[in-house]
Design brief:
Blueprint lengths: L5 E5 L6 H12 L3 E3 H9 L4 H25 L5 E3 L10 H10 L3 E7 L2 H8 L15 H19 L2 E4 L4 H13 L4
Parallel strand pairs: 1-3, 1-4, 2-3, 4-5
Helix pairs in contact: 1-7, 2-3, 5-6
């Protein structure tokens, strides 16, 4: 059992997990774990696409769960999950168990598909495999519709379409101090 809960950030690709995670980690003085980067290092790959080509999505998801379990068993970290981590077999149970033991405070950075597409437009995402192989907005809408109920259920705090990193960090800090209310 850790003395303070890990701060776990989840949301779809482009929701700001890594950016907010860096600012939050700086603010609380804890290490930041970007789970995608941790998985890439563990599997000795340069991109998520390379991992998917080598071991498939199922191998990537299994590695995500293994790395998440390892991080959650250590001293408190700020953890930026991969966009699909909570959908990996066993991940939702791991997150729920950590929450139930007060070892994780889970924040869902919830953005509309339109906002996500806006944030990602103009960015090269060659290192990320397309999830459905359809138009970006249609893909984001489909992924959002499929994942939103799970992410909402797992979250202690939901932050809608956050635009300011500073405001998001402040809101997370306030929620943690008040016990998630």
């Amino acid at each position: 059992m850790t003395s303070s809960p890990h701060l776990v950030l989840m949301g779809l690709r482009g929701s700001g997990k890594s950016t907010v995670g860096r600012a939050l980690a700086d603010g609380v003085g804890w290490p930041l774990v970007d789970l995608d980067s941790m998985v890439l290092d563990h599997l000795e790959c340069n991109t998520v696409k390379e991992v998917w080509d080598r071991v498939g999505e199922s191998g990537f998801r299994a590695a995500e769960v293994d790395m998440l379990k390892a991080v959650l068993s250590t001293s408190p970290h700020v953890v930026a999950l991969g966009g699909g981590t909570p959908t990996a077999p066993g991940a939702a149970d791991l997150i729920t168990d950590s929450r139930d033991r007060d070892e994780a405070f889970v924040v869902y950075l919830r953005c509309t598909p339109e906002e996500l597409v806006s944030r990602l437009s103009g960015k090269v995402n060659d290192n990320r495999p397309p999830l459905l192989g359809i138009d970006t907005l249609d893909e984001m809408a489909a992924v959002f519709d499929r994942r939103d109920p799970l992410y909402s259920r797992l979250a202690d705090l939901i932050i809608e379409d956050a635009v300011s990193v500073e405001d998001t960090v402040r809101r997370i800090g306030s929620a943690v101090e008040s016990g998630g209310e």
